[in-house]
Amino acid sequence: MKHILAAWMRDRPGVLNRVTGLLSRRNFNIDSLQVSASEEPGISRMTFEVSGDDRTLEQVRSQLIKLVDVTRVESFAQEAIVKRELALVRVAVGPDERRQVLDLIQVFEATVEDISRTDMLIQIVGREEKIDSLIGLLRDYHLLEMVRTGPVAIVRSAVANVESEPALEPARDTWQGGGV
Amino acid sequence: MHFPPDHFRTTAPPRRITGSEMIWDACVTEGVSLLFGHPGGAILPAYDALAIYEAEGLLHHVLVRHEQCAAHMADGYARATGEVGVCVATSGPGATNLVTGIATAQMDSVPIVCITGQVPSPMLGTDAFQEADIVGVTQPVCKHNYLVTDVADLPMVMKEAFYIAREGRPGPVLVDVCKDVQIAEGEFRYDMEVKLPGFDPYPASWQDALVDAADLINAAEAPLIMAGHGIHLAGVSDVLLRIVEKAEIPVVTTLLGTGNITETHPLSLGMGGMHGEAYANEAVQACDVLIALGMRFDDRITGRLDRFAKQASVVHFELDKAEVGKNVQPDVAVVGDLAETLPALEPFIHPNTHAEWLASLTDRKLSSAGKDILTFELDELVPPFVMRQIWSETTNLRDPSDVLVATDVGQHQMWESQYFVHERAGQLLTSGGLGTMGYGLPAAMGAQMAWPDKLVWAIVGDGGFQMTMQELATIQQEKLPVKIAIINNGFLGMVRQWQQLFHDKRYVGTPVLSPDYVMLAAAYGIPACKVEEPGQVAEAVRAANTTDGPYLIDFQVKEEVNVYPMVAPGAAVDELIRRPHIVQDHGGVVPSF
Ligand SMILES: Cc1ncc(C[n+]2csc(CCOP(=O)(O)OP(=O)(O)O)c2C)c(N)n1
Ligand SMILES: [Mg+2]
User: Fold this and answer.
1) A71 and A86 inside one domain
2) Is residue A174 part of a domain?
3) Which of A46, B151, B379, B410 is most exposed by smallest CB count within 10 Å?
4) Chain segment B525-570, per-residue pLDDT in tens
5) Residue located nearest, by CA, to atom 20 of ligand 1
6) Shortest CB distance from A168 goes to which of B139, B143, B325?
């Protein structure tokens, strides 16, 4: 099963290294990883997806929170979150095909960021599947170049919908430094 | 210069000093008096500043002959005192030489602070002479680490380093200080509060689980305690003993939990796991409630995990949440400091007796051959006999509480744990988690420096001793009265045992040639003797114990002797290879072990 987690960490030199180093040496399977600023100055927010059972998830959380620079870890139920990705795609389209591509772009609520006689730069934001399908369709044209973020996620309401805690852990909304 | 008496208070007023002085001021204020280290270019300013601290008798620097041993000595000092040990090295090779010692401390939760010099900050990242990214290198093997590039950060970094090393589950912290930072001046104060939002050393929501734990324990008909290093770290072996006696619960220990209760106690089953006694492991597989206290279900104690104590409900008391459910999923977990949770548990535990359960354990105990080995009339020198003799001769002379033992890694380490009769928690210093050969001698030295009046034995193999025996020079330079027993079997014995049992006796890379250790010791000015026959053991041990200063004994033991019982890798803990039956059936005949 895929779990989505967020970790907050002090913005210190090498902190990303500490987190990714821990994930890899503990043999956790990370599917994607995004780092960005958070609402709090000096604190970065990392969003990542990890595959594994609930026990793996529990290990990831309790190992991560042990890092001195990591201040908080949360895991989210997929239903409770808004999860988005962004992709930039450059496609070779001449004047003849432009209309067709613009139609596609409209359907997907994507935008054209740049255009020339020979190609078009398209930006799409949305759920993973939506981006997958637009890219799939764009492959019918000559897809020149593509860059894509992994997902970032945030919970829907003000109250964090944390994935049901394993039986061992008393119910808590967030994980504030619960390690050693 | 002379330090006024209140200089090293945390409340001393801020003052302008160099980065080097900050390092030592912080150490002294933290209560450090010993540094184990080796100098070099990038740490030279700090060494220069050390002169005054040495002259004032505030800090004493022990020059090691290899930085690995600086870390092991700091580790031995820390294990023997419960205080933070400090080691010092230069950049590059000095720092990388520390790594094995740091990893050893990390695996066994030992608080040490390692101070390394680094190239000047403007040269970082240029492959400057003796530059190594030691923060990157040690990140996976330490609790936390720092690179200091600004002298303004140094006081807080030092304070955090000691705090993190000591608090919660202890561990090593490395502070890498650029050379220009050591030279630069800045404001030093030590009255600031450590604020680490991501570091919560003592989880505190264990109260509810405690009641569930007590219910399970009180209802048990065949309870068993498995006590680990956490008992010693939390200093609660007295509480453990009271609980054990009140509810009549037998105790198995892990290797690092050795001595958590006195091994002569009727409820002590000694060590469990790969080389634990059969009855200890059988108890694990027969109990109905397994109470794990301050331990982490390492594979050496559990054997095959999917067949470990499956019949039992498991209660796990542990400080580190990440250890709960990592290997064994407990039915009840009490996550908190054992110094709090165990005393809190005590009143909930009902007085109880478990006559039937204990009787079944006694039966199992009687079928064990452990004692037979020791009562043989031997005409060959076998290690179990040597071990028991060292112990009995030493404790005839000195109160057992005055004796500390450090072991290296291998067969002799297991024999020590089987045949010494440990009295108290923390009496044995050994590398359990990492299994670091070369640990024994420097760890004994660190312990001896902590307790100059105790009798400290280093029990080492001929293989591991040769990894760190250069420290004999340090023993002499520091005048340390460490007693050294080399269990010289001509082999990397533990590996040879595996080759014998699992690789058709192909002894590849395991025969090990030794120098003449008596001559070697003589070269360092250390008295020594060779023991080749059982009859010579007691006298040699007496000579060592009564010699004022260090002493070395080369025990030339029978070569191909195996450690039994043994749980083969991949086997369940009760599927033991027992001591050969000949031992059990025929007293007096020398068996082929
Ligand atoms: C640094 C290191 N290298 C290799 C090993 C693997 N190893 C474990 S026990 C052992 C043999 C130790 O031989 P010796 O010191 O003679 O002790 P003995 O087993 O003979 O008592 C070896 C090589 C280790 N534990 N540590
Ligand atoms: Mg050997």
Assistant:
1) no
2) no
3) B379
4) 999 999 999 999 999 999 999 999 999 999 999 999 999 999 998 9
5) B493
6) B325
